[in-house]
Amino acid sequence: MFRRRSATETRRARLDESDEFLQALCAGFTLDSRAARRFFYDDPYYEVNQRWGLWLQHGTERKLVSILTAIPLTIRIGARAVACYGISGVATLPEYRRRGLASELLRAVVDALRAEGAPLAILQAFDHKFYRKHGWETVSYLPQARLAPTQLPRYRAPAPRRAYPSDYEAVMRLHETHGVQGTGSLVRDERRWEFVFWNLPNLWVVDGQAGIEGYLFYDFLDSGWTLRVRELLWRTETARRALISWLAANEESVKAIEFNLPLEAWQRLGVSGYQSPPGDPHTPLYTLQVLPHLMARPISSRALLETLLGGADAPDDFQPFTLSVRSENASDHEALSIVAREGRLAVGDAQPDLPALTLTPQTLALLAFGTFSVGELNARRLLHAPDSMLATLETLFPERRPAFTPIDYF
To answer: What is the mean pLDDT of each run of 10 residues along the chain (410 residues)?
Structure first.
C-alpha cells in the first residue's frame, strides 16, 4: 500500500480528525498514546492551535502521514511585540520519511500563513540545516552549563516551598516587575501564563516579608538525572541564595543541574567561582557550551516590517529605499519600500526610483532580530548593501543579542 508517490492533500485538520492527528503525533515521536492524550487535549492552546496535516490518497485509501502544529504566539523584538506562529510537532510517520512530505507540508503552511498576513514564524529546530533551506535562519544562540549539585554554593537561607495556585498571581507580578523581557522572549498574555503553569508544575517560591521574593520553574531530563532550570527569578539577595541552596541540596536525587542562560544572566546568578580553583590552571571549574537555538522565518515581510518600524521616528540621516525579499520559491518574493512621512517611518509599495536592497528571508530574519550587526552581516557577505545605506540600516536594525530561554519553549 502506498508504494509509489500518491496524490497528496495538505490542509488543516478538522476537529473530528483530532484523534487521527494525535495518533500520527504519537507514531511520529514514539509517544505513549494514553499519556499523550491528556497533554494533547488539555493544552491551553488546543482551541487556537492550527493543526496541519498531509494525507496520502491512493485510490479509495487515505492516510495522514505528516503533521505539524502552528501555535499563535507573540514575541518581543526590541520594544515591539510581534505576532507570530510557533511551528511545533513536525513529524512524519517513520515508514514515509525521506520522501519530501514534511517539506511539502511546510511549504503549504507557510503559503497559508502568508495569505493570512502573518508576519513571522518561529521554531525550535531538530535540524537547522533542514529548515534553513526552507527560509528559516538561526537567530539566537544560548550558553548551556551543567554543574553537579555539589558545585553550587549552600547558603544559610530560608527554605523555598512548593507553590500553590494561590501564588500564581504573585509570581506573575514578580515577573512583570523583575523579569528580563528582551528580544527573543515571548509575551506572556493570560493564555501563555496558563500554559506555563500547566506545562511546568514544578514551581518553588521564596517567601519574604513583602510577599514572594523569588521563584524557580524546573523540569527533568535524562530519565530524571538532570534538573533543568526553566526560569529562576529573584528580587532580593536572600531569595537568590535560597533558590541556589535548594538546587545544591538535590545532590542525592540528580547528577546535574542544567542552566540555559545568556552570559549576562549567568554572571548575575553568581554561582561561578564558588569552589576553590583546582591546582592545575588548565582544569576548568565548569564548562559552558553555546548552542544554536531559535530559528525564525519572515512570512509576510511587509507585515513584519510594518510591525517593527511603522510609526517610529525617522532618523535624521534616514535614506528611503526599496527592499526586495527573494527566495528560491518564486511565490515567496516580496518588494516594498521603507520611507519617511511627516518624520515617521512607513512601509509601502516598492518604488523603483529609490535605492534598492535585495535580501533572502534568512538575512531579513537576522536583521529583524538583531542577531548580528549590519556591519557584521555585510562583512560576512550575507548582506550586500551600498555603503551609503549602511548608516540607515544600522539605525533601523540595531544589534540586540536575542535570547530564547527554556521558559518560553513551546
So the answer is: 71 97 97 94 98 91 96 98 98 96 97 97 95 96 95 94 98 96 97 98 96 98 97 98 97 96 92 76 88 97 98 94 87 91 96 94 98 96 91 96 96
Of the candidates 121, 146, 136, the residue with the CA atom closest to the CA atom of residue 291: 146
Q: How far is CA 238 from the centre of its chain?
A: 31
Q: Which domain holds residue 281?
A: 143-291
**Contact indicator for 13, 52 with CB cutoff of 8 Å:** yes
Whether 128 is covered by a domain: the verdict is: no
17 and 152 both lie in a single domain? no
Grid coordinates representing 188 are: 506572556
- Pick the last residue of a domain from 118, 153, 175: 118
Question: Same domain, yes or no, for 192 and 264?
Answer: yes
Residues, the chain, total?
Answer: 410
Say which residue the cell 511565490 belongs to. 331
How far apart are the C-alpha atoms of 88 and 19, rounded to whole Å? 18
pLDDT at 386: 87
pTM for the whole structure: 0.93
What pLDDT score does 273 carry? 67
Shared domain for 180 and 287, answered yes or no, is yes
> Are 247 and 274 found together in one domain?
yes
CA distance 89 to 393: 36
* φ/ψ (deg, to 5) at 299: -100, -65
- Confirm if 174 and 163 have CB atoms less than 8 A apart: no
Q: Distance (Å, rounded) from C-alpha 18 to C-alpha 398?
A: 43
Dist CA 336 CA 269 (whole Å): 44
Angstrom distance (rounded) from CA 288 to CA 268: 15
